[in-house]
Amino acid sequence: MSDAAPSKDALKAFALALPKAELHLHIEGSLEPEMLFSLAARNGVEIPFRSVDDVRAAYRFSSLQDFLDIYYQGMNVLQTEEDFFDLTMAYLNRVRADNVRHVEIFFDPQGHTGRGVSFDTAISGILTALGLSKAQFGVTSKLIMCFLRHLPEDDAFETLKHAEPWLDRIEGVGLDSAEAGHPPEAFKRVFGAAAERGLKRVAHAGEEGPPEYVRNALDILKVDRIDHGNRSLEDAALTQRLVEAGVTLTVCPLSNLKLCVVDDMAAHPLKRMLDLGLRATVNSDDPSYFGGYVMDNFAAVIDALDLTRDDIRTLAKNSFAGSFLTENEKRAHMAAIDAVR
Ligand code: ADE
Ligand code: ZN
Question: Which residues does 172 contact at the CB level (< 8 Å), separation at least 6?
């Protein structure tokens, strides 16, 4: 028997075989160009593209803001409850192929209410799809509504008010959109109000923003996990704190490459994060814009980094450990992961 390292293909097959959870996914970022066209036609919405190839060619970004401009524009085709249902169902169908068994997805209510589509329209379509996916495929889910940080905190409070009738079906609140110049502390009061309502809290931090934003998300917003968190590594004391507290980082490798958070996948910090003992997970963020779903992200880091089988198993375990499932549910998923040899 040779004890040569497993091939990249063997590692990818292993990653595929492991049950996984996705914890960082913006449902509006799963709008594939084909659906962009079909919904534009169905709703009579004009889009500035002539073909799917045209759209894909436009998906070249030099920064987060570059991407956000196109992301918010794409949302215009989402008009009816059926549109949100179709969008969510397409994502849930797609992740089954990657052996994703649980998803915790974001939606951006203000991206819709700001253009005249009601909170109720968006959430109704999303929740119907999430319910169907559990009944038909056994894929479980939680829904997290994000506040757009480039807008004032008062608007976030308005969104929390829209959410009031739905709170038993919303797991938590998040914070996304343009990070630099929009620090977590600007949302202290609304995150406090969300906590009083029993909602979990997460926030994008350390994607483009400095380590201080990660620290303030923990200390001021009292978040349960950090979305991205890459720049935490610039601060050794913060890194140590994240390790000791077992804070989950929802890392998004292909997103980081597309948004120039890293110059090259070989320079991605995921392996370093695991070696430091950080609870890192692998996620797709906005798969239709960044070049792929969960397994595409695993494949990219397996190709570029020296991940071992143990690393890959740890990533799968971290995805459930960092989820908002119950301890019993987590245990069942961990046992299923241990059973993959
Ligand atoms: N909204 C959708 N994707 C995002 C990201 N990667 N960062 C911040 N806001 C987002
Ligand atoms: Zn994100």
Answer: 142, 144, 145, 194, 199, 200, 201, 202, 224, 324
Cα angle at 186 between 188 and 224, to 5 degrees? 45
Ligand 1: centre distance to CA 6 (Å): 34
Q: Is the CB of 227 under 6 A from ligand 1?
A: no
The pLDDT tens digits for 80-107 are 999 999 999 999 999 999 999 999 999 9
Measure 148 CA to ligand 2 centroid, in angstroms. 11
Q: How many percent of the chain have pLDDT more than 90?
A: 99
> What residue type is 333 in one-letter code?
H
- 8 Å CB contact between 222 and 195: yes
8 A C-beta contact, residue 224 and residue 199: no
Q: Is pLDDT of 1 > 70? A: no
Q: From the candidates 22, 81, 207, 208, which is the catalytic residue? A: 207
Residue of minimum CA distance from atom 10 in ligand 1:
177
- Where along the chain do its domains lie? 8-338
Judge whether 185 counts as a catalytic residue. Answer: no
User: Could you tell me if the CB of 207 is within 6 A of ligand 1?
Assistant: yes
- Its pTM stands at 0.98
Pairing between β-strand 200-205 and β-strand 100-107 as defined by DSSP bridges: unpaired
Strands (DSSP E) contained in 63-133 are 100-107
Q: Which atom from ligand 1 is nearest to the alpha carbon of 29?
A: 2
Tokens of 131: 């319910």
Level-2 CATH architecture, domain 8-338: Alpha-Beta Barrel (3.20)
Closest ligand 1 atom, CA of 108? 1
CA of 5 to the centre of ligand 2 (A): 33
Report how far residue 61's alpha carbon sits from residue 69's, in angstroms, rounded to the nearest whole number: 10
